[in-house]
Amino acid sequence: MNELLDKLKSCPLFRNLPEEVLENQILPQGNLVDIPKNTTVIQYQEKVEYFNVVISGRIHTLHSFEDGSYSICHVLHPGGVTGVDLLWTASRVAPYFAVAAVDSTVLQFPASLLEIQGGLDETWRIQILEQVLALISMDNMRKEYRLSILSRKGLRERILTYLTMQGAKRRTATFTIPFTREEMASFLCVNRSAMCHELSMMQQEGLITFRKNKFTLCNREFAGLPDEKVVSI
After folding, report:
1. Residue 59's beta-bridge partner residues?
2. Deepest of 53, 76, 121, 137, by most Cβ within 10 A of its Cβ?
3. Is 167 helix (H, G, I), strand (E, B) or coil?
């Protein structure tokens, strides 16, 4: 119980709610669901009447194509939320899949928790709805960043744009990305082999260094960081 409360506290929707509200009004309405790796959490074209809070593991939202390929749109870690963006659309039909990237657990809540007056004290319901607006706004910003990456036509330009955004976001030249190579290629909408070759070339040219999913930008101007020594990996 304490672990679930801690996870709910880390969820942006329930931020700053009193613990007794989480324990007595929110948690009893949730259904804990284990999601094995590669299992779909939200189906494409499914009409969604619920939302999920990620308790453990990692959930990807993605688009799948007829040839079997897919493109990762967003990565959700513990505290992340799936489905809430669909509850205020006209159809509530999902335009994407949500899939467990690893064995995961979610706490599933009915849409009525947020929609219907009386299911929750109105003061707290309004506060949660304000957080929903903030969450959807942040999601729109992430989509804008990704569009700016995908608007770059060259492979190297896409890679550098993504990596410099990660460095600028963290205010450091060395950072860890949340993707495997296959996932990174999917996110950038590029061929995995070509991307890996380009990463190796960029490292040979002294633009970056990397080990697995930990990267260092060797030119701090890429990340918009102050001029100081870069620690190599």
Report:
1. 76, 100
2. 53
3. helix
Query: Which residues sit opposite 56 in a β-bridge?
Result: 105
Predicted confidence at residue 70, as pLDDT, reads: 85
Residue type, 111: A
* CA proximity to 196, closest of 161, 183, 206: 183
- Which amino acid, one-letter code, is at 182? E
DSSP string, 50-99: EEEEEEES-EEEEEE-TTS-EEEEEEE-TT-EESGGGTTSSS-B-SSEEE
Phi-psi region of 10 (alpha: psi -120 to 50; beta: other; left: phi over 0): alpha
How far is residue 17's CA from residue 38's CA, in Å, rounded to a whole number? Answer: 33
**Cβ-contact 120, 26 below 8 angstroms:** yes
Q: In the chain, at which residue ranges do the beta strands (DSSP E only) sit?
A: 31-35, 40-42, 50-56, 59-64, 70-76, 81-82, 97-100, 104-110, 174-176, 208-211, 214-217
**What pLDDT, in 10s, does the model give residues 5-54?**
888 888 999 988 999 999 999 999 999 999 999 999 999 999 999 999 99
Instruction: Round to whole Å and give the CA distance between 155 and 99.
Output: 27
Q: Which two tokens stand for residue 20?
A: 């007794």
